[in-house]
């Protein structure tokens, strides 16, 4: 229990409370013990994790689902370094996060000393702002600035270092957090809207590309309305899955697969791309505009970076929902020709999933696993698809009906985020079922957080696709150099491994076993680990098929 005097540690916690922070994920160290202690007397729940990387991924996914900055904390030196991956993931995925770590005291920060590295400089390349708190009086201003920058469009990560001797310093009792004010929406420029309307009216074959910004801006309603008004198909990025329901007749699927996919033919035929909420780090625009000949209307809160394959003709830079509403209002009395809505592409994709829904092969085909996952999950339930071959299959085929219900890391494409991320997802959305879908390679990278879930009583269900290899790299090697090496490994007994943490473990031994086991694990509302062998022979079959398709379609 902390004493009654006002300290920097106490003030930091008050600032966190003023920002509405409910959870802080992290590990105490010798240099941040006072900050951790002060949270015990606050409204904040501190989630003790087993690795700082897990804390950063939890903050990352919490920020992505809530739109409020997720917060993680660590000690100095190695503890802070372990936060770096999740911080970089949040930054590249445009997710709000505030990372706070200890630093050596001001009495030795200027010289070579034990455990000192320049953390501010280390975090600078992967954050919107990285700084060190040097005076007690600056705490309210710097904390308010950190959250404002992290949450402002374009969201991202912020890092603050707190020197050890500063954390325990006394502060004036009248030093208080700065009031948080709501962010005001920005309206689009009328001239740019008018220019976009003129371009749309003369388009012969327009298409909409929806990016992650649509999900962050909660602009799905307006996106769907514009698509329906124009009767134009919508392709999404991996991270924007669900911004138009996959069951909607205008939903085309995802763009950004490592080789040309079915959706690419729609972009080949298009003359105008309405790019809504798309960011270049989601996938290279050369995948959909290789000849650099498409006219592009960029609709986002901010200007995009320069890319030869993304030659923006018109830029509407404002809140996405307001921009789409302005376009709808300007186009509502216009009659449009019946554009090709690419029914053949949608039918091919549907057949790929449905054709394997009852496949009895063992190990299971990826298509069968995805079909069973979809049957077990409601429209509002959340699946986190980790990075690897699993991401490619889930992104392409998992039917997603609501925004932010299929979470994929595609800015940094980070392995091992899904397990710790699922804990944060359950805290952010306690009424929704949450499932982490991971390869065996990524699972063991952060599997220690099973103990966190057990101790903190946070329901966790993980489905491991077991192939005893780094499957995506094997796929890429076979595709590019016609053989593979140094990608195979051995695994523990996943059932016994789960049980050693006090969790339930399941091993799938037949195709018909998977769906009831997933349903049982999700209904248990406890901690369950499911190991399911997967047949990744389907990987090369898919890329061979797509390669032939580019010739024969």
Q: Tell me the distance between the termini.
A: 70 Å
Would you tell me which CATH topology of the largest domain applies?
Rossmann fold
- Uncertain regions: pLDDT < 50 for 5+ in a row? none
Percent of residues in beta strands: 15-25%
Describe the structure in your own words.
The protein has 553 residues and is α/β, with parallel strands linked by helices. It folds into three domains: 8-168, Rossmann fold; 190-341, Rossmann fold (3-Layer(aba) Sandwich), CATH 3.40.50; 356-552, 3-Layer(aba) Sandwich (Rossmann fold), CATH 3.40.50. Helix content is 39%, strand content 16%. It is built from 22 helices and 18 strands. Helix 6 (139-151) links the parallel strand 5 and strand 6. It is globular, with a radius of gyration of 24 Å. The termini are far apart.
């Amino acid at each position: 229990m902390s004493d009654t005097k006002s300290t920097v540690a106490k003030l930091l916690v008050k600032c966190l409370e003023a920002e509405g922070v409910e959870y802080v994920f992290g590990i105490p160290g010798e240099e941040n013990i006072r900050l951790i202690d002060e949270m015990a007397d606050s409204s904040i729940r501190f989630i003790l994790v087993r690795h700082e990387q897990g804390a950063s991924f939890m903050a990352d996914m919490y920020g992505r689902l809530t739109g409020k900055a997720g917060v993680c904390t660590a000690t100095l030196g190695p503890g802070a370094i372990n936060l770096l991956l999740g911080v970089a993931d949040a930054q590249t995925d445009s997710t709000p996060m505030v990372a706070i770590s200890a630093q050596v005291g001001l009495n030795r920060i200027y010289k070579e000393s034990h455990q000192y590295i320049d953390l501010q400089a280390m975090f600078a390349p992967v954050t919107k702002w990285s700084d060190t708190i040097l005076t007690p009086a600056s705490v309210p201003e710097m904390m308010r600035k950190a959250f404002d920058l992290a949450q402002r469009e374009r969201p991202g990560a912020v890092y603050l270092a707190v020197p050890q001797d500063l954390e325990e310093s006394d502060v004036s009792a009248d030093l208080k957090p700065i009031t948080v004010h709501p962010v005001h929406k920005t309206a689009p420029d009328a001239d740019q809207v008018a220019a976009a309307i003129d371009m749309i009216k003369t388009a012969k074959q327009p298409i909409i590309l929806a990016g992650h910004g649509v999900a962050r801006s909660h602009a799905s309603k307006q996106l769907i309305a514009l698509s329906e008004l124009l009767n134009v198909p919508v392709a999404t990025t991996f991270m924007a899955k669900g911004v138009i329901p996959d069951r909607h007749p205008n939903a085309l699927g995802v763009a950004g697969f490592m080789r040309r996919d079915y959706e690419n033919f729609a972009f080949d035929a298009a003359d105008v791309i309405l790019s809504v909420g798309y960011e270049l780090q989601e996938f290279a625009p050369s995948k959909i505009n290789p000849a650099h000949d498409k006219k592009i209307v960029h609709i986002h809160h901010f200007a995009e970076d320069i890319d030869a394959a993304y030659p923006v003709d018109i830029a509407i830079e404002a809140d996405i929902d307001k921009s789409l509403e302005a376009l709808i209002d300007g186009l509502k009395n216009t009659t449009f020709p019946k554009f090709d809505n690419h029914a053949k592409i949608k039918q091919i994709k549907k057949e790929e999933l449905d054709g394997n829904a009852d496949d009895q092969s063992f190990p299971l085909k990826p298509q069968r696993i995805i079909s069973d996952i979809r049957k077990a999950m409601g429209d509002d339930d959340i699946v986190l698809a980790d990075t690897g071959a699993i991401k490619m299959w889930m992104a392409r085929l998992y039917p997603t009906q609501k925004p932010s219900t299929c979470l994929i890391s595609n800015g940094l494409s980070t392995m091992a985020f899904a397990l710790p991320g699922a804990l944060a997802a359950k805290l952010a959305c306690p009424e929704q079922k949450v499932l982490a879908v991971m390869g065996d390679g990524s699972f063991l990278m952060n599997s220690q957080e099973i103990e966190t879930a057990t101790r903190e009583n946070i329901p966790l269900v993980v489905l491991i696709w077991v192939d005893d290899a780094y499957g995506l790299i094997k796929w890429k090697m076979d595709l590019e150099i016609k053989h593979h090496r140094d990608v195979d490994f051995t695994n523990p007994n996943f059932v016994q491994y789960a049980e050693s943490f006090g969790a339930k473990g399941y091993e799938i031994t037949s195709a018909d076993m998977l769906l009831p086991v997933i349903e049982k694990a999700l209904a248990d509302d406890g901690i369950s680990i499911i190991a399911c062998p997967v047949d990744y022979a389907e990987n090369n079959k898919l890329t061979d098929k797509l390669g032939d398709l580019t010739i024969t379609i």
